[in-house]
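Per-record layout

source: Chloroflexus islandicus
name: SH3b domain-containing protein
length: 372
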Amino acid sequence: MTRRSSARSRAVSEEFDPISGLLAIGVILGSLSLSLPFLWTLTVMVAGMTIVFFINRWLREQRLQRLRRQQLLDLSPSEFEQRVALLLEDLGWKQVTVRGGSGDRGVDITAERDGLRFIIQCKRYTKPVGPNYVRDLVGALQIQQADRAILVATSAFTRQSQLEARGQRVELWDDRILLQRIDEAERLRAAQQPRRSQESTLLYAGALGLNLVLAGFALLFGGLPISHAEAQIEQASFLGVTANAPASNPIVAEAAPATATPRPTATPRPTRTPQPAATPQPTPTPTPIYPTATVFNGGNVRAEPTLKGTVLDQIHAYETVFLLGRSADGVWIRIINPRQQEGWVHRTLLTLDPAIEAALPVITPERQGAGR
């Protein structure tokens, strides 16, 4: 009980609520506004909101990194196999095929890299993987006549497993290596999309420029940030000097002689022009409202709900997409990305609310055009 409560308190302390941060800054600025001019209060407010925004952005990225392994454990075995296949494809592997299921003979995925044929076995375990799985994979390597084999797990491998794989054509990918491969795929995708780095640079530069412009206006039109009390003292001193100054003799302008005002003539009344009848306006067609989801991990947008589907575009982490429907097996979700590209993505790439996911309509490949 103590461990669970401490873990919960640690998780809460690691999260940062931007609304609470803005409220705290509002309280601080409320007290400062009593002693600072308006322009300087506005400048400090914008700077505070900028700090809250970037702190929340950084903490969110750190929290997503910690949740990656937990989200891999939340996948079903078949979904974990699909996720590994997507990872291999993002890393540039060819001929990636999922073979998991009954009768797979210890082979979940087959793929090719650098002209070599690989067989991959996936284990979604929380406990260390024993050496018997390594021996089974070595046997499957001989039966399948593949060049190399990989054993992928969401946990660690025992010392005996590592000794069993030594000298064999078997690679062991534990949870640490798996997360490194996911990060590598993200870097490759970022290298293919230089626009993302440009957008981040423009965001930081825009925020900095906005704060500098506001500070410049405050300094130009408001002067140095002196308190209202000092400003009132200076104003009272100025008014006192003005009131004590001798009044100048007023100059009275000589009145001009009055002239006779001509009598107004009768203005003819205009004839009434008939108003045209109002043209009825067409009733606007309501725009459909789709549910949304946040991209957890970047990937490809495909024309068909399969790994062999044509790649139409990509989605990137932290983007928001519109949800149109799901495949019959629930593994693929049809979406519209921020670049207005419609297509299928694997459900493990999105952070989905269970209630929203359950309410999505089932779309078959023949009906996929009717989603928009």
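summary: Confidence is low (pLDDT under 50) at residues 1-15, 247-255, 368-372. The chain is about 45% helix and 15% strand.
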